[in-house]
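Quick check before the chapter quiz. The format below is the same one you will see on the exam, so make sure you can read both the input and the output lines.
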Amino acid sequence: MKKITALAAALVLCAAHASAYENSYAGYSVKDGQPYYKLEAKKVYAYTNISSKKVYQNEEDFKNTAVNIVNYYTAEDMEQILGEKFSTAYFDAEYEKLALLERSQLNPKTVSVPLLELDKYAEHDSNGNLTIQSKVLKEKLEKLTPLIKTGKIAGKKAITISYLYKQGDVLVKIDTSLVSANDRLYLLSTVNTDQDLYAPKKDEKDADADADIDDIDTDEESDENDEAKTEPKSAASVKEEMEKALEVENVFVRDVPAETMQRFDKAHTDLLKGFKAFTPTSTPKAISFTDAAAGKSVQLPDDWFYGQLNLKYKDKGTFYLTLASSLKEMQEVAANTDYDSIYSVLAIPQADPEYQKKVTELYSSGARNVLQHWNHLLITASVDNITDAEIKELLSTPVANRLAVESFISEGLQRMKGFSNEYFALKDYKTNFDFTQEKALIGINADTDLLKDFAYNNKILLSCNQKAATAMLFIKKTDVETEKKLEQQVNEWHF
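Here is the expected output.
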């Protein structure tokens, strides 16, 4: 009986561990429940609160998905942000100060609380972090009035900053709770949305459709409308229209249905309930992802991130899609994007002879910006529990199918090599084909030039066996060093 009890307890622990993310160096774990989407970088972990098993079972649940984000900061990070020494004792003192103001019904903003100046955290994002308050969203949040409160959530002292606002037809609530342990600060954020409360009603949609019909009653009116549409706009006016469409507006809790607020609050409370802090280890956590369908794991360089989609289809297996690259490179692309040029092109009427030329120039300059700063990209996709008859047929006659596939791919690559322009050129390629009755492998190694000035090496691996299929694409600049360990793992991404 004791053995059975011990076994049951072990199984419970294993199940709990399987549905939790742990970062021993950061000193925390969080129950993520096998999310259908997750993103991980050096100091951030984000995931949806809907599991991969439920994503297609209930459309309403999927529509109301919340995103949870955990950021952590060491004492050294916080000292850079605050300009003074940080510890959990420092946090507790700030917590008590805010709690006293709250009990006295005084506005927390009446005193200086550097801990709550989240814009400073955003400025620190270049150090492997990425917060809700970064970049564009930061500017939006500055226009809103946050609700600041203290209290214990799931037994943890938490300072919570909440935003409730409307953007377009969508209601958004962002809750960020600051908690501390072991002289580290953790930002636990939940982003909730509701797409129903402010959605246009059916009658409104019908009225809009009728208005569109009224607009084309006569040829004369149509001509006048066409002329109005082709009137040139200024870049400033287009920018103003874009910003107006993205404007945020404060919403009061009293104007939101109680059940909606309860759903929002529960999502954030569940995050804190599932969060556990413990003594950090001295060994940094390696950023890595696992594709269970392919049975492969990849350890990424220290400054990389990955995002993974994980969908479990009922009786049809699991699909994994993972994208990985350098977080620093991604941030450099965003920082160097010329948004004013985009507004300028959008201001040109499509009927204008200059429109296509300007669009081409914008595409070229935008692509050049991306290529200048983005050196690596890794994409993998896999699916298990294959029942496709064509896959079975592919493996049943390996010799004949290899010849057919090799001929088709080689002919296609040769044609592509003969086709080149200022945007794309295939310079050289090598192929590898290995077909047996147990598995099939297609390997392509190709060198390309993009926009003439940027040379890339591209590795493509496609493979399948009787149970699963997987694909891998790895793109890197030829003049950029890549970690040998990553190169080795990429080359082994096949059955």
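If your answer matched, good. The two ends are 43 Å apart (CA to CA).
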